[in-house]
Design brief:
- The chain has about 500 residues and is α+β, with helices and mostly antiparallel strands.
- Helix content is about 50%, strand content about 20%.
- The protein contains ten helices and 14 strands.
- The strands form four sheets. Strands 4-3-7-6-5 form a five-stranded antiparallel beta sheet.
- Bound molecules: adenosine-5'-diphosphate.
- Adenosine-5'-diphosphate (ADP) binds next to helix 8 and helix 10.
- Adenosine-5'-diphosphate (ADP) binds near residues 406, 421 and 464.
Amino acid sequence: MVPAAISSSKRRFQRLPVRWRLTAVSASLTFAILLIFGMVVGQLATQRIRDDFNRDLENSASRLVARTRIVERPFSEPQVFSPDLADVSLPNGATARVVRIDGQVLDEAPERHFHWGAPSSGVFSIGSLTVATQPILGPDSSVVGYVQYARSDERVSETITKLWILIIGGILGGTALAILGGLALANRAMRPIAALTSTAREITATRDLSQRLPPPVAEDEVAELTQTLQEMLTALEASQAEREAAMQKQREFVADASHELRTPLTSILANLELLEAQFANLGESEEHEIVTSAVRSSKRMSRLVAALLVLARSDAGQRRPTADLDLAAIADNTAREIAPNLGQRKLDVRSDAAPMIGNQDDLHRAVLNLLDNAIRYSPPDARILMRTARDDKSGSVTLEVADSGPGIPVAMRAKVFERFVRGVGGSDTNPTDGTGLGLAMVQAIVESHGGTVAAESSKELGGAKFLLTFPQRKAAPSKAQPEAPSGIEPA
Ligand code: ADP
């Protein structure tokens, strides 16, 4: 039970902050040392004060004895020759008397009467008085009586009490000083560590490894720790920079590769389409089917490469040149471009002015993708609605593409923007056409324009609805911004 209690308080002590532990240890040591020292000094001083007092009494008694004589006379009272006891004793607040050996009081200072007890040589305490008794010798050197000299030891006790108060005050004061000093010292010693902790916290919060730790002031263990941590941070920063550079290189490589792939792909597609047209003229044949399939694959590959290019550019943080433009015009152009693919579907475009700043090609690509999806994921007789608008109150412009197709399940709506996420729906109508990158690309384009994109369900048409929102261009038309930081290439 006891060892358990000890170990639990030990554990509690070890959990205290270092500064408190240091202070506690130094203060308890100081207290113990002061206590032992104070006790010894106090004891010695008390003893000394008492001895002095007693010796003083004895001396006074001896002096009185030297001046006192008892003359025995036969058949009559003995005669005492002594100084006036009142004079001798009273100035000191003392009292005295002369007694015969048989205890008969021969002379006594007036006023102070108390119970002296039986006289015998030495110093004794009686009540609050200390009594020194010295023998008076007769002519034959035999003891004939005693002189008793007494004084209250009140003053001595007072002095001793004061002494002890002083000693105890000293011990407590010294301990208090040790606590304050220990705390101040420990605080000072811990200050660099507190600074380290707060900087480390800041680095954790901001993830900014380039932050510098506070430079150490002394050449101590903390300085060594600071230096080691700083070296670690520098090494981490270097490796982070290396990794970042490698990733950036890779992203740029993907962007460059996709860009380079587009030209040969366009040429392949053009040739294949030419070939397809020729075979179509020759009527149904196996070759025609093969070429048709190749055209479809090439188209899909084109889409894939285009999406890859946009995503790689956005990953690499490449900014594209922007200009003042009207989203309505882009919507109209794209609608015209996609018209041949509509089949029986009906595309309704309501393009109100939607001025914004952006990259024409990228926005066009995004709208094209949305229309393409609306066609691919809706039945042949579906209705598609594209609308642009401006909202001056919120300072935004919007573009919306809705269809009467099957729509997107609620659970899928946030997911469809992720890369390579493909839902159902398209598979029935066109099993090989999707890439799973289209909407991810749309999102990357919208976000690079400071806008947002959301997948919803269309109240009007019952199918899917994609809503793109961008910041509106301010009333004063700003100039085109052709400034092209390095890495920007026209599409
Ligand atoms: P995919 O190449 O598969 O079309 P996207 O990123 O363009 O890739 O689309 C992701 C998924 O979102 C699609 O697989 C499809 O399930 C769903 N989706 C996109 N547009 C529509 C739409 N208009 N109607 C229904 N589902 C859609």
